[in-house]
Write a structure and sequence with these properties.
Blueprint lengths: L2 E4 L5 H12 L3 E6 L12 E6 L7 H14 L4 E3 L3 H7 L10 E2 L4 H8 L1 H11 L6 E4 L5 H4 L8 E5 L3 E4 L2 E4 L3 E3 L2 H10 L7 E5 L5 E9 L3 E13 L5 E7 L4 H13 L3 E10 L6 E7 L6 H6 L4 H9 L16 E3 L1 H13 L2 H4 L8 H9 L6 E3 L8 H16 L3
Parallel strand pairs: 1-2, 1-4, 2-3, 4-5, 17-18
Antiparallel strand pairs: 6-11, 7-10, 7-11, 8-9, 12-13, 12-15, 13-14, 14-17, 15-16
Helix pairs in contact: 2-3, 11-13
Length: 401
């Protein structure tokens, strides 16, 4: 039996990994800043530990994980978030013979640093949105004249910026005028660091999931986003498995080969309605929120990664899976619906062609449609959903009116 430690048990992707590896016969230990959490509530979690918050107490978090690895005789450690990867990567030699299931810090930096990634994409011929690169707020005055159309998308180079005091969250923002853009750079702490300003691409969002080995895909899966939270763009709350797109497979291959990537990754694209080209949005070098969809459709990435780490995986491309299956996050779809009913399209800043309010209602009422399933709700492992329901009700009661 293999002892596996999975971090950040609050996430839906961690729950998917816990269920996958538990079914495979692994002894799964889960950590989280709060207990109980989604993953620790699963029947497939053997043991759970509460740890300091990696976002704010990095040194204490690393020490706590190292102690758990030694105490539980952990053989495989799977960091599930960027901050956990940043903090645990330096411990790779100290934790031996435990294997940390992520690439080196250098390779992580090459794909998680969006400025570096998009410049690399340009160099190797992968299509990207029109992009301006800024070293900091002082560069804005000289570059703003180059923007000929709003809205624009503003992205810090890093989604998680590590400082001596902890991490800064570098989320994506939209600016609908020059004034809004200048205000963002004057007020957002993450934009004091390198960033990008990109044209907004209108088109279907598609994620290509891969298990990669240096210069070729071992496993492939693709999905499209149908509904998001917030509605204008964010976390996927309903997604659907779709056939592989040859352009996206090739672009992902070019990018991942250029850094000698080994392990799991999700490469996100949008197919621009203006020219039909699939344009790069970002790469996540870790497990992703809609992981359960791939597992449900017969591409079990956590199990495949475990086999790769143990050198048991045959070196051949896997590309066969169920197409047309939808995965739904119930409370995410509820939040999407509430936002659509509560606010106007203008307030939500929805792109052209967005579904109407009535279409949103109709989509929500079809929650249990054919060829669909849920990521958290599962009759065979019901406790995570019960915990999520309790937390959702608690937060709703506490929310300011």
């Amino acid at each position: 039996m293999i002892n596996v430690l999975v971090t950040d048990g609050e996430g839906r992707s961690t729950l998917a990994v816990t269920r996958s590896l538990g079914k495979k016969g692994c002894r799964v230990v889960v950590t989280g800043k709060d207990l109980p959490n989604l993953s620790s509530s699963s029947r497939y979690c053997e043991k759970a530990y509460q740890t300091p918050d990696p976002f704010h107490a990095g040194k204490d978090y690393s020490s706590a994980i190292a102690e758990i690895v030694a105490k539980e005789d952990i053989q495989i450690l799977i960091p599930m978030t960027e901050q956990s990867i940043y903090l645990l990567n330096p411990l790779s030699e100290d934790l031996l013979p435990c294997i940390i299931a992520c690439p080196t810090a250098e390779k992580m930096s090459l794909i998680s640093d969006k400025v570096s990634l998009f410049k690399r994409a340009e160099d190797i011929g992968v299509a990207i949105p029109k992009t301006l690169y800024l070293n900091g707020p002082d560069d804005l005055a000289a570059r703003v004249r180059e923007i000929d159309c709003y809205p624009v998308v503003v992205k810090p180079a890093l989604s998680r910026i590590q400082t001596k005091k902890g991490f800064i969250s570098g989320g994506v923002n939209y600016a609908y005028s020059q004034d809004e853009l200048e205000n963002l750079y004057a007020t957002k702490e993450a934009l004091c660091f390198p960033s990008m300003i990109q044209e907004r691409i209108i088109g279907e969002g598609t994620g290509l999931f891969t298990l990669y080995d240096t210069n070729h895909h071992l496993a492939l899966f693709s999905h499209r986003r149908l509904r998001e939270k917030p509605p204008a763009g964010g976390v996927s709350v309903v997604c659907e498995s779709v056939p592989l797109d040859a352009d996206m497979v090739e672009a992902s291959h070019k990018l991942l080969s250029s850094v000698g990537w080994t392990g799991v990754a999700m490469v996100e694209f949008k197919r621009d309605v203006r020219d039909g080209k699939a344009k790069l949005m970002e790469i996540n070098g870790r497990f992703w929120g809609s992981l359960q969809l791939a597992i449900t459709c017969d591409v079990d990435f956590p199990a495949l990664l475990l086999d790769q780490l143990q050198q048991k995986l045959e070196l051949q491309t896997v590309g066969h899976y169920r197409v047309g299956h939808k995965l739904k996050w119930f409370y995410g779809t509820l939040d999407h619906l509430i936002a659509r009913l509560k606010y106007s399209d203008e307030t939500l800043k929805l792109p052209p062609g967005a579904p109407s309010k009535w279409q949103s209602v109709f989509d929500f009422l079809r929650t249990c449609e054919k060829n669909s399933s849920f990521d958290v709700f599962n009759w065979g492992d019901i406790k995570p959903f019960l915990l999520e329901s309790r937390n959702y009700a608690r937060d709703a009661i506490r929310a300011p009116q």
